[in-house]
Fold this sequence. Notes:
This protein is mainly alpha-helical. Helix content is 60%, strand content 6%.
Amino acid sequence: VNTPGITQVCRPSFRYDDRHHFPTPRPKRGHVEALVIFDKVHVPKERVFMLREWQLAQYLAYAFAAFHRFTAVTYKIPILEYMTGLGMLAAEANGVEKASNIRERFIQMIQYTETTKALAKAAMLDPEDFAGSGLYIANLLTSNMAKLYFASSFHEVSEAFRTSAGGILVTQPTYQDWKHDALRPHLERYMGGAGEYTAEERLKLMSVLHHAVASDFGGWHEVCTIHAEGSFAAQKMMLAIEAPTEMYKRRAKEIVGINV
Length: 260
Ligand SMILES: Cc1cc2nc3c(=O)[nH]c(=O)nc-3n(C[C@H](O)[C@H](O)[C@H](O)COP(=O)(O)OP(=O)(O)OC[C@H]3O[C@@H](n4cnc5c(N)ncnc54)[C@H](O)[C@@H]3O)c2cc1C
């Protein structure tokens, strides 16, 4: 990082622990993005992976994408699990968890989370020898399908989180209001949750959900889901390359009885 000639133009990360959000037991922060500029940087030989071996450039890019797609779906799984839990708890705190349209949203969240997990697992359980190198990687076709499924369904499922939580997601009083001595009794009275949920618990839940789907970080997440690890078009290209299209056509020819 401090090698002469390197300049990093850093964009600040998103932090949860600002004055508006309720504190939570574990710190939450995003990563820092940077534009990295190389200006006459000395790169030691042991850090050079390829030198004039342009024939291997395609493999290198393809291998990177293969690993990257697989990491995409695996790191998303814990995020989806906790977001599904948040959506369910928010509906409970609002007392709407038994409404049929909310239960439908729960099913949508479950289907999405568990299908993503199943695809990631399937990719891992069916590894392949990358370009005959002896290096085994998660299945290329399934990894790309997993990333495409995850990313293209995210925005739809985001709606389910937002619907389950209600408008309080963006109208809730802030943590600063909660700490205000004169306001606190009013908030305790008027913001109380359904069942066992106190006003504080309901607001804490909504505060974390706000951060996840209704804040600047929420917007970042929507973009990250599409573009990080390659956009949909990149996965679709790999699907077209990796799919057993000849086998599909052979099956059809056998059924129809043609020999083209
Ligand atoms: C939060 C985040 C984290 C990231 N992390 C990493 C990382 O760790 N490592 C890393 O290497 N990269 C990372 N990326 C970069 C990511 O791989 C790219 O953003 C992504 O591949 C899209 O490329 P681009 O942003 O240059 O968009 P562009 O190439 O400008 O593409 C814009 C749009 O045009 C379309 N498009 C572009 N070219 C074609 C084409 N040839 N055919 C069809 N459609 C096309 C795409 O579908 C896309 O929607 C990250 C991006 C984000 C947002």
